[in-house]
Queue: 2 jobs
Job 1
Amino acid sequence: MSTRGGRAVEKISYLGLPNCYRLSNGAVEAVVTSDVGPRIVRYGFAGAENILGEVPGATLTTELGDFKPWGGHRLWVAPEAKPRSYAPDNSPLTVAFEGERAIRLTAPVEAATGIEKELCVALDGEGSGLSVSHKVTNRNLWAINAAPWALTIMRGGGTAIFPQEPYISWDDYLLPARPLVLWHYTNLSDARWSIGKKFIRLTTDASANHPQKVGMMNKQGWAAYRHGTTLFVKRFDYEEGATYPDYGCNCETYTSGDFIEVESLAPLQRLEPGASAEHVERWTLFGEVEAGASEDELEAAISPFVAG
């Protein structure tokens, strides 16, 4: 693999985009875009499948133009609204290298929203750790209320996993544990959901094109996605007492057909002109994670990878 100025980064074409950059440490690799986005379009073990989903042909047309998800990981701003959230991000980015395996990608200010988006991706020197920093800056002449929103499209055919709050007996504690937020199209009797004492799980089904979504206050600070024997884990902070979007959600998931997202959100903030808000996720990837169908078997298999 070539380097740029001593950095373990290589310029490549990916998903038909000619100006992508691959960060690698020999164990795992991440590919980011600079023609559009910003996006992380690949994260996986070197030479192995991409744990992220790829949807280069998808397009959503709004009055602001064509929004293309491309796949993988992107930065949005909560709360969601149409067409504002779907402002096209099809312009080239400013690229800055920060260390041997770190890259900062800054998009032009969105004309329709006055928001500037920035993604900084840093790969550990060894192992699978990836730090993803999301930054939104208000370039309007007026204040806005907003929150960075990190959305990851996963490779279809797997299961998203979210922790329930630790069990406490009614005899010991009477107050509620956390909100679980439903959308108008959410159907908890749908076979793709599995809601148990320890986990909430959502599995993709290519034949089921009616969407499902839930949000939650996730105080445990992690979410996972299991595809075969590969386990993807993202970690994020929970801020006690903060106001989160969507009735108090710092974690959400959505699926339709083979498409599925694992999402985390920062608290809502009032951003004065020129002010910024940041949100950091920490990614890790594990292979050969064998687990049965029961909650106990799943807990035994993934606990070493999601704890702490």
Note: Residues 110 and 245 are 21 Å apart (CA to CA).
Job 2
Amino acid sequence: MSNTSRRLKEYFEDKNILILGFGKEGRSSYEFIRRVLPNKPLAIADMKDIELSDDNVRLITGEDYLSCLARFDLVLKSPGIPFKGVKIPDGTEITCQTDLFLRFSDFTAVGITGTKGKTTTSTLIYSMLKEAGFDACLIGNIGVPVFEDIDISDSAVAVIELSSHQLQFTRTSPHIAVLTNIYEEHLDHYDGGFEGYVNAKLNIVRNQTEKDYFIYNPDQNLEEYISLDSVKSKKIPCPSVSDEEFLNNLTKGNPHLKGRHNLHDAMMAAKAVRCLGVGNDAIKRAVDNFAGIEHRMEYVGTFDDVEYYNDCIATIPKAVLSAVEALGNVGSLIIGGLDRGLDYTDFADELIKSGIDNIICLPDTGYSIGKLMESKGATSRIIYAKDMEDAVRHAKDFTPKGKAALLSPAAASYNLYKGFEEKGRHYKKLVLEICAKN
């Protein structure tokens, strides 16, 4: 048992524990506790029914599952459960795997958060460290619960992708904190809307010390939410001229790192690993070998002289416009998903100026954006698709030869899919079934 596991075991032993949410992270928390405390009484709460055979577990399910919080000393909250409007009872500690992982471990942690770019940045950091010979793991919001690597060596480097949901109740900051950017997203999850979302993100840096590093985008007005003078760590703005010249030459040769936004991610990754002594040779090898991220400007194929791209991870307007700019030849753009209260007025203006031939609109937000564009005199063909199959058929029929068809929703996918991964894979499947046929 590692030092981290031993400390967590001691911390859990005398606590009345509730595991809140029983998806991937909740199951991981349960399995870890059972490994170190096989017979400890536990409770698990979720809106959905839970199938589990364990005489020492009490199950709490149904619409009212959040009403039980006051009965517990410690609540291990899963990231996907929104706490907007939830009153935290006195005497109840709300925590999560990320908080406990950082709080009770001795290894070096590099934490990456931001509205967009965190997966690319995290993956590049991990690859750069491996190229330099570091013992490293890549965990967190990238799809691997942090408890899965709880027993890594104290000499290792943990590269942790962090969502705002994971950071909301995290009280320990990583040794190196990277904040790629902040734009409007997840407004339905936080009290205070955008400000609540930003405050959750900034927990990545609030508890750093003078020995730590904070890498951030100086073009964003963070001072509106946190005084940089109050940040104790060494502050490293990104980009810088030297990094831009060096990495611009590298990323140009990699088709998976097209566009200004990907260059910025690569620069942030380089700054992070340089804090650990990684040199340019390892950085170059990692950039050269970068194979892209599924659902982020992912090339699907070229059929009948039309390139198809899956950018389903783009759930906000800024990310969509970055992809459109990077590709430079978008003939059809498929947009639309769950309405989370974002203001799409400026986005509609930008799409009108883009000159994209076809805007293919999916429910729900795609319809409202399409109508907004029409009301502003859009010259693009506005097409209202009933579902993804309909959208792909329209892309096949109307995208000009020599141009690209891009799925980049500018919205979450939960209205019709389990998440952007399912939506993106459905799109790719339909492209291969419909567009690959002569």
Note: The first helix runs from residue 3 to 13.
